[in-house]
Amino acid sequence: MILVTGSTGNVGREVVQRLAGKNIPVRALSRNQPESRKNGTVEWVKGNFNDADSLSRAMLGVDKVVLISPAHPDMVEHQTAVIDAAKAAGVKHIVKLSGLGAGADAPIQLPRLHYEIELKILASGIAHTFVRPNLFMQVLLGSAGSISTDGAIYAPAGDGAISFTDVNDIADVIVCALTQPGHEESIYEITGPAALTYEQVAETIGKALNKPVNYIAVSPEDARDSMLSSGMDKWLVTAFLELFSIYRAGYGAAALSDTIKQVTGHTANNFSAFAESHKSFFNELNEA
Questions:
Q1: What's the CA gap between 232 and 210, in Å, rounded?
Q2: 12-69: per-residue pLDDT in tens?
Q3: Which of 77, 111, 128, 153 is 20 to 30 Å from the Cα of 97, by its Cα?
Q4: Directed axis angle between helix 167-179 and helix 10-21, to 10°?
Q5: What pLDDT shows up at residue 217?
Q6: Rounded to an integer, what distance in angstroms lies between the CA atom of residue 75 and that of residue 117?
Q7: CATH code at 149?
Q8: Is residue 21 assigned to a domain?
Q9: Distance between CA atoms of 4 and 27, rounded to whole angstroms?
Q10: Is 64 in a helix, a strand, or coil?
Q11: How many domains does the chain have?
Q12: What is the distance between the alpha carbons of residues 87 and 129, in angstroms, rounded to a whole number?
């Protein structure tokens, strides 16, 4: 049995679907799901990172865990609770969704937190696989509204290039690590095949939609005000702005897509293909 935390998020949802498609028993943990619901080989269970008992129940009969949780000021505590429950239950392998550049000396907070969690997994003695992707291509779906209304993408990215990574490729790497031998004690840093500026991203989406789409660079200060006024959590706003500060400085441009092919056997998805495959999403908003 494989337990997937964060099972309704971008990556977790895709991992659950892929495991179910292989008829592999999977338990999907979510704080918003009913206490128990069975769907094919997928068992949905309700659980909370702050409820040790719910995590212990979720671990019954589990031998592998996919460790995913949202960026959050308590993410170290949340994921440590899962690690502790996994160790107590005798779990054999944890595949953790981490972040590109995770390390003690990372220039911003989020990859340092991921690294702190990685160290806790190492200390647990449980076999590990750390999957460290760059920024998801799917974050651009959050700009669908402004693309529809203004023909524009707004971001504090400057002219920094980013090797965006498709969530589908991330999920494929995780599933391979779970279902194929030889991925234990491994770290996979993965990206898309090319680094693109937001201007290039806007142009690519425009070509897919057959309409002009422009990139409007906004200042970090204006981005902060906009996110806070929308109700976004202050800690998350700070983490977001930190992330884009290193992208503006050129730290997001490394292209490490060969790892995806080495693990999965297929090439990494490129941004043009992503934009084409999401045309209907953008067009639905445009027609609404």
A1: 32
A2: 999 999 999 999 999 999 887 655 576 778 888 888 999 999 999 999 999 999 999 9
A3: 153
A4: 50
A5: 96
A6: 9
A7: 3.90.25.10
A8: yes
A9: 6
A10: strand
A11: 2
A12: 15
DSSP 128-165: EEEEEE-SBGGGGGGGHHHHHHHSEEEES-TT--B--B
Give the domain range for residue 82.
Answer: 2-133
Structure tokens at 190: 């993965």
Residue 208 maps to a domain: yes
The Cα–Cα gap between 108 and 104 comes to 10
Tens digit of each residue's pLDDT (9 = 90 or more) over 156-213: 999 999 999 999 999 999 999 999 999 999 999 999 999 999 999 999 999 999 999 9
- Per-residue model confidence (pLDDT) at position 41: 84
Same domain, 141 and 121: no
Cα 76 to Cα 207: distance, rounded to the nearest angstrom: 41
